[in-house]
Design brief:
Helix content is 30%, strand content 20%. By secondary structure, the chain is an alpha/beta fold.
Length: 202
Amino acid sequence: MIVKVCGLAREDDVRLCQTLGVDMVGFIFHPQSPRRVDPAWVGGVATSCRKVGVFTVQDTATIAHMAAEARLDMLQLHGPYAPATGQVLGPERVIAVLWPERFPTPQAFLRAASSWQGHCRFLLLDAGRCGGGHGRTLRLPWTLPALPLPWILAGGLGPETIAAACALRPDGVDLNSGVEARPGVKDAAKLRQTLNHLRGCS
């Protein structure tokens, strides 16, 4: 299972993620986020983990410029982006975010998810109806359908919630607020506990 840790703002936490075998480390570029970091700083962070930039309001030209400066491997489109945006940026680099709770039925959600085929590498399903990093877990009145793309689950994942997340059988998990001491500062004990639980689920 793919493990992504997002909202990183300290080199010590990036090093911890690398030591613990995390696959992807995420850096947030949303202007109003308490976890926001500078692309130049990200570019100077050395790690063997894949670097993911989280974009919410930037246009494709700005994303491309920031991605080069930050030396990103993946681009997470965490805002009102259309599938065509993924095609422009390079589908093999794109993680497209969807909020399943926005959709009244699994069929409506599946149509939205399917529209990203050929335009992204992964889908990321987040809790709530917008944004992220709020600590909420995914709550749906319907069962998630089988998806046409590999998908990553996000939303309040930590030591107490990771087992239930595994039961949904995602291809990956995205850890942020559930393994924090405060925004932008990871709690090493919570991160280790979550990863240990995750290995137990596999």
